[in-house]
């Protein structure tokens, strides 16, 4: 049996190499660009919101394995969720990377919990949160987000 930690790494590597929901979303009604100057990650997040629900969510860009995997898992997780649910997930994910989350929150995050190990590497935290900040900016009608040091 591989260690849990290795499974986590595998999931990140898999999504980093073969991102899901990658490519432009035609007809998106929200979008934003994100840039993380510390690593050079660049991302565009496309969202289609209708009736308070995230109907579709895609991204494209160039980034490291962490930012790509984070974006990929984020799109899988948030598709079909309400705007409120997405906002809650954003906060939980942020908590996961900057502090501790309880069992209940970890259960809600599901696969996204694999990023908890990233908090040992503060520079990488910015890579993991970039897609989420960009996603949130898109929903708020902010077209551009740059991660600060
Ligand atoms: Zn990065």
Question: How would you portray this structure in words?
Answer:
The protein has 149 residues and is an alpha+beta fold. It has one domain: Alpha-Beta Complex (Sufe protein. Chain: A). Helices cover 47% and strands 20% of the residues. It has five helices and four strands. The protein has a four-stranded mixed sheet, covered by helices on one side. Strand 1 and strand 2 form a beta hairpin. Helix 1 packs across helix 2. The longest helix is centred in the last third of the chain and has 19 residues. The protein is globular, with a radius of gyration of 14 Å. The N and C termini lie far apart (39 Å). The model has no long low-confidence stretch (mean pLDDT 93). The chain binds zinc ion.
Number of domains: 1
How would you describe the oligomerization state of the chains in this entry?
single chain
Give the rounded overall mean pLDDT.
93
Second rung of CATH, namely the architecture: Alpha-Beta Complex
CATH class: Alpha Beta
Question: What does the main sheet amount to?
Answer: 4 strands, mixed
> Low-confidence spans: pLDDT under 50, at least 5 residues?
none
| Dominant shape | globular
Q: How many strand segments?
A: 4
Helical amount: 40-55%
What ligand species are in this complex? zinc ion
Tell me what portion of residues adopts beta-strand conformation. 15-25%
Order of helices and strands: HEEEHHHHE
Question: How are the strands of the biggest sheet laid out side by side?
Answer: 3-2-1-4
Number of helices: 5
- Secondary structure category: alpha+beta
> What would the CATH topology be?
Sufe protein. Chain: A
CA-atom Rg in angstroms: 14 Å
């Amino acid at each position: 049996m591989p260690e849990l930690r290795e499974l986590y790494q595998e999931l990140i590597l898999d999504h980093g190499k073969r991102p899901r929901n990658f490519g432009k979303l035609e007809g998106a009604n929200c979008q934003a660009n994100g840039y993380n100057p510390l690593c050079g990650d660049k991302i565009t997040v496309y969202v289609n919101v209708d009736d308070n629900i995230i109907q579709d969510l895609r991204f494209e860009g160039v980034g490291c394995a962490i930012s790509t995997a984070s974006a990929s898992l984020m799109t899988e997780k948030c598709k079909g969720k309400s705007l409120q649910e997405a906002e809650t997930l954003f906060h939980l994910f942020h908590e996961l990377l900057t502090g501790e989350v309880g069992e209940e929150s970890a259960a809600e995050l599901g696969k996204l919990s694999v990023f908890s190990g990233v908090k040992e590497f503060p520079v990488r935290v910015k890579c993991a949160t970039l897609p989420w900040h960009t996603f949130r900016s898109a929903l708020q009608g902010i077209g551009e987000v740059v991660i600060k040091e």
